[in-house]
From TrEMBL:
It holds the Pfam family Polyketide_cyc2. The lineage of its organism: Bacteria, Bacillati, Actinomycetota, Actinomycetes, Mycobacteriales. It comes from Mycobacterium kansasii. CDD domains: SRPBCC. It comes from the Bacteria. InterPro entries: Polyketide_cyclase/dehydratase, START-like_dom_sf. This is Polyketide cyclase / dehydrase and lipid transport family protein.
């Protein structure tokens, strides 16, 4: 058993690229949609995301918990966001999000690449956290949760204004029909 060290998944979201960007490029919001990330805080006095800025994520899978410091390496609003993790015993993973406008809204592609992980560590992680052997389905579920959050925020009328703006946009209706 050896941990899958890279992968890529996409989801189409019926919302404008700017709405998707606001959620994807805010590390503090990752715990709202991630199956593992429980908390995020900025480091080095940063208060928002940007090139070279750092944050720390606290994660959990089953009974295992860990933290990783992350450095943002890609920040091209509203098209690309990426960061690399560090802080483990010789392992690092690059997480990369690409956003592209499509007729129905936005295509969001999430990719990950194990940058450095010794074979012994890969085998240990696969043994201790079998869910990490192939995280395709868990990451797909993350993207579905992220898409639902964007849709809820983009398609919902302002609080206390239900019905004042007419029916929801067509992109919101078609997804729920």
């Amino acid at each position: 058993m050896r941990q899958k060290l890279n992968g890529q998944l996409s989801v189409d979201i019926p919302a404008p690229i700017e709405a998707v960007w606001q959620l994807v490029a805010d590390p503090l919001r990752v715990p709202e949609w991630s199956h593992e990330c429980r908390r995020v805080r900025f480091l080095d006095g940063a208060t928002s995301a940007g090139p070279g800025r750092r944050f720390r994520g606290t994660n959990r899978s089953g009974r295992y918990r860990w933290t990783r410091s992350c450095t943002i390496f890609a920040y091209d609003e509203p098209n690309e966001f990426g960061y690399i993790t560090s802080g483990g015993p010789g392992d690092a993973t690059a997480w990369h999000f690409r956003l592209e406008p499509i007729p129905a809204g936005t295509r969001l592609t999430q990719a990950f690449q194990g940058v450095s992980m010794p074979l012994w560590l890969s085998r240990l992680v696969a043994l201790l956290i079998p869910e990490h052997d192939d995280r395709t389905e868990a990451l797909r579920a993350d993207l579905v949760r992220l898409a639902a959050l964007v849709e809820a925020e983009h398609c919902a009328p302002p609080t206390g204004c239900a019905g004042l703006f007419g029916p929801p946009p067509r992109s919101c209706r078609s997804r729920r029909s």
